[in-house]
Amino acid sequence: MRKAGALLVKTSLYLILTGIILTSPVLIKLAIIPAILLIIPSGMRVKIVRESWDEKISVGENLSVSILVDLKGMGIVRIRHTLPEYFELVYGSNFKEVFVLGRRLVKINYKAKATKRGIYSLNKLEYELENFSQTFVKRGIVRSSVLVEVKHKLPKIKKVREIRGKAKSPIPGIDIAKIGVPGTDFREIREYMPGDSIKFVNWKATARRGKMMVNQYEVEGKKAVWIFLDSNPYMLHGTTVKNYLESAVEAANGLAYYYTTRGHKVGLYVVGDARMIHPDVGSRQFKRISKSLLEVEGGRENIEDALEKCKKMILLYKPLLIIITRAERMRIEKILKLSKLIPIQVIALKGLDHGFSGAIMDVARRKSVSKLRACCNCVEFDVNKPLAVW
Amino acid sequence: MVSVSIKNNIEKTEEVKLNKRKKMAGWKLVSLASAELAFFFAYLSFSATPISSLINPVFLIPISLIPIFTMFTEKNPFSFEFFGLLIAIIFPKIFPSTPLYNSFINALYVLGFEKLAKSIVSIMKPQPTPSLALIVVLFCFAQIIEGKKIQYAGVAFVTVMLAYLLYPLFFTPLKSTYVITMIAVGVAAVAFALFKYT
Questions:
Q1: Residue A264 contacts by C-beta under 8 Å, 6 or more apart in sequence?
Q2: Residue A180 lies in a domain
Q3: pLDDT band at residue A168, thresholds of 50, 70 and 90?
Q4: Which regions in chain B score pLDDT beneath 70?
Q5: I want to staple A245 with a disulfide (CB 3.0 to 4.6 A). Which of A114, A235, B54, B71 is the partner?
């Protein structure tokens, strides 16, 4: 019951009480007026007739939503299509207040700007119903099916530059995959091993050597690329819209697209979320990675532990390891060891540290970067600049 | 970047507050008008009573300033206290038509205060009180529109007027219900007595 309703009850009781004390029938009769206002009924059936929205948008783009609501009943209705906190209303309104007597169709049209990537469910249509005397309020929720995917815009990376350093070039453009489907290019003759197909047996060599020999062919496909995305709490430095994690996700998405379109096997490991996608090829793999990146929220995990966890797979695929992190937070020792086995590229994020503390972090980052450049490829990425420029 | 967003938030909050104040002003004016109208009815009622020859109704006029002062606070100009005050002003008109007043006058007669009883009757005569219902209606109206958009004042007014027109209709069913209940209770009592004692 609202404040007005409570006050009407109070008035009614006051008139009855005064009427009883003064033995006044007039006052007792007048106590009915506020009581009538309290018993005025209200009822409403709220139904979504039609809804349309943009299912997939990029960060910074506007989401257009249009909902047609059918209202049957009587009373004053307030409808609100609840927006997640990372959406900014730019056009129209997600709120409507109407007076209904019988039936009325209400259209909610608005545009909201998405400021953060993620999968958002805009499935709550809240309504508040008041009777004509505006003394009672009833609240309810109607579920709609609005589901929106907000992705980072795909940067048009034409070429991933390499930095001159002591390390050997890790760019996998010309490298070939270690495991995969055997092709037609002959590599060598080797001894038969359990699991080898009978069609690869080289009978002449077998007769000559006196033991089973098989032909080994080069496997199809290019070298695998494994992206390690750091999502530890220190990556959340910045605002909710612009922080290291968001930039890292954008970079990972762009690199995954770059390498999958060029036929590489691409895998992903989110350090912190412990989310792993094994290397694979094709646009479906990119979609899988892209969707997984949308769900990255962050957590606590050392990069060293993550690398240790994936060591078996890393040694199996021998991929190019791309680690996107803040270099000043890394412990280099593990990377030094691993860089002797596989090519590693570290993308060191910078650009959101300001002031005196920012200067200190800058010095620490430069120190880490110079150390990393001694053993692997390390690129600094200013998050304030567009990814395509990097 | 952060400081800019905080500044924007402060500006937005100020804007929201300003809009809220603008919206508030509408219902407050309507409520004030209702309070003043109710006071006017109460004033007329008081002026029509013989007691007004003893107390000059002009002295009541400063009471009309109460809602104006209340309007400058966050409260409703037509407050419950002001409503109580208006009922008190009409009291000389309500009281003479009550059984309590009649029994009081009779008691004075019986106790030998005939002159006093006659003088009281000459001051407070039973009179019809239509303005009382209007005051109640206006008070209810002022409570309903509190904090609302001015557009809904019309709906609220129509609803309240309907309640005002319909409320006499409630007496008949109440009265008949009362009679039916009494008959039912009487019949039940007779039946119970017959069943038990025969």
A1: A172, A221, A222, A223, A224, A225, A281
A2: no
A3: very low
A4: 1-24, 172-182, 196-198
A5: A235
Q: For residue A296, give the nearest of A270, A267, A266 by alpha carbon.
A: A270
**Is B95 in CB contact (< 8 Å) with chain A?**
yes
HEC per residue, B84-108 = HHHHHHHHHHHHHHCHHHHHHHHHH
Plot region of A70 (φ>0 → left; ψ -120 to 50 → alpha; else → beta) = beta
Identity at A360, one-letter amino acid code? I
My answer on whether A14 and A101 are in the same domain is no
CA distance A134 to chain B (A): 6
* Residue A22 shares a structural domain with residue A59: no
Torsion of the alpha carbons at A196, A197, A202 and A203, rounded to the nearest 10: 110
Instruction: Flag whether residue A186 sits within 8 Å of chain B, measured between CB atoms.
Output: no
CA distance A385 to A373: 22
Strand pairing partners for A46?
Answer: A71
A359, A260: one domain: yes
Type of residue found at A112: A
CATH number at A60 reads 2.60.40.10
pTM summary value: 0.62
Q: How many CB atoms lie within 10 A of CB B109?
A: 12
The residue segments making up the domain with residue A65 are 43-151
Q: How far is B194 from chain A (nearest CA, A)?
A: 37
Q: What is the pLDDT of residues A62-82, one digit of tens each?
A: 888 899 999 988 888 889 988
For residue A147, which phi and psi values (nearest 5 degrees)? -130, 125
**E strand or H helix at A209, and its extent?**
helix A203-209
Question: How far is CA B158 from its chain centroid?
Answer: 18
Q: Which residues from B are below 8 Å from A11, CB to CB? A: 80, 83, 136, 139-140, 143
Mean pLDDT of chain A: 82
What distance in Å separates residue B5's CA from the closest CA in chain A? 10
Interface contact B5-A239, CB threshold 8 A:
yes
What would the DSSP string read from start to end of A157-190? ---------SSPP--TTS-B-SSS-EEEEEEEEE
Distance CA A99, CA B167 (A): 25
CA A337/CA A317 separation, integer angstroms: 17
A376 in the same domain as A308: yes
A135 and A248 together in one domain: no
ipTM of the complex: 0.76
Angle A345-A348-A350 from CA coordinates, rounded to 5°? 160
A164 occurs within a structural domain: no
Q: Is residue A234 part of a domain?
A: yes
Residues A242, B1: C-beta atoms closer than 8 Å:
yes
Whether A390 is covered by a domain: the verdict is no
